[in-house]
Design a protein that fits this description.
Length: about 350
């Protein structure tokens, strides 16, 4: 079968290879992958950026995927062949105090499918049945692959919600998680302004406009000016340290900031400014099982439409999908292995 493999620690050493199809061990299932997204952490991982030294290539990448169960290993009782499922990307041990608190994504022994072990950028993938989420009938498996980034937005925006009806909300960073967070803030009654760079205008900010949101290009117009008032809530999804610093200055007294991005840089932080404004500053990392279920429910009832974000690529063209993502010309590249091609040959 075909798999997109990061071959070594050399930056950008990744290609589609023929590999042996995996077999499920006890407690595991084998999925035929229907769709697998590529996200920012994949771009960092393939480039062997700082923070990804722990990877042990060769490894098949891909952690945002959905598919159909085609084989179950010994001891799997709650998942059947034919089930339509989405994978949880960050997988806790489910046994430690952190996992028992419900925050499996913070587990000290967590692993990530597609980084720690072979993932879903392939015709087939094997993973533990306990890290699967059932996909509702009305959600296509392609859209279900977007449940992973949507679940991250759900945790940032809806888990302990900060956005109320009529609130002015800024979302900095119009990548998939920023756009999905903006949509959830809008569903919560917020008047939303999404900010981005000039390069984001044609694709990413256009999606925000189509969803009825305001947009602003950083350096051209302040979001507070676009909204006509100081923001009540700011969701920082860009990963640019100046954006977080700007949020602390711009949010109204008593307002809130949710940080859902990861940063390559540090920055000086004058806490007194935030104290005197009595800001709520909250950090949100990835997601756990309840947020996946909620994400799939939002896709099922039409509250969130994943379609505008998706750029489809065949599995054989996975490398082109990475290049399009590096160039910023794709929003959410989605690898769609074509059944009857690689996967059927392999079985
Ligand atoms: Zn991801
Ligand atoms: Zn744990």
């Amino acid at each position: 079968m075909r798999a997109f493999v990061k071959g070594s620690s050399e930056p950008l050493d990744g290609a589609v290879r023929q590999v042996d199809p995996p077999r499920p061990g006890p407690g595991e299932v084998r999925l035929q992958v229907a769709a697998c997204g590529i996200c920012g952490s994949d771009l960092h991982a393939l480039r062997s950026d700082p923070g990804f030294e722990w990877l042990a290539p060769p490894v098949t990448m891909g952690h945002e995927f959905a598919g159909t169960v085609v084989e179950v290993g010994d001891g799997v009782v709650d998942v059947e062949v034919g089930a339509r499922v989405a994978a949880m990307s960050i997988q806790g041990c489910l046994d430690c105090a952190v996992c028992r608190r419900g925050t499996t994504q913070l587990c000290p022994s967590r692993v990530v499918v597609g980084l720690s072990y072979d993932g879903g950028l392939a015709d087939e993938v094997v993973l533990p049945a306990r890290h699967l989420v059932a996909v509702p009938e009305t959600v296509t498996l392609e859209h279900a692959a977007v449940a992973e980034p949507l679940s991250v937005a759900v945790r940032a925006v809806l888990h302990e919600p900060l956005v109320g009806p009529g609130d002015a909300v800024v979302v900095s960073g119009p990548g998939p998680i920023g756009l999905l967070s903006a949509r959830l803030a809008q569903l919560g009654g917020g008047e939303v302004c999404v900010t981005g760079s000039p390069a984001d205008v044609d694709r990413r900010l256009a999606i925000a406009s189509r969803w009825g949101m305001h947009t602003a290009v950083v350096g051209e117009r302040e979001p507070a000016e676009v909204l006509g008032r100081e923001p009540d809530v700011w969701v920082e999804a860009s990963g640019a340290a100046p954006a977080l610093r700007g949020a602390i200055s711009a949010v109204r007294r008593g307002g809130a900031i949710v940080v859902v991005a990861l940063y390559a840089d540090t920055f000086p932080f004058f806490a007194t400014e935030a104290v005197r404004k009595e800001l709520t500053l909250r950090f949100s990392y990835a997601s756990a099982h309840p947020e996946y279920v909620q994400a799939l429910a939002l896709l099922a009832d039409g509250s969130v439409d994943a379609a505008p974000l998706i750029d489809r690529f065949d599995l054989s063209d996975a490398r082109d999908a990475f290049d399009a993502a590096y160039a910023g010309s794709a929003v959410k590249p989605l690898i769609v292995p074509s059944p009857g091609d690689g996967s059927k040959q392999a079985s």
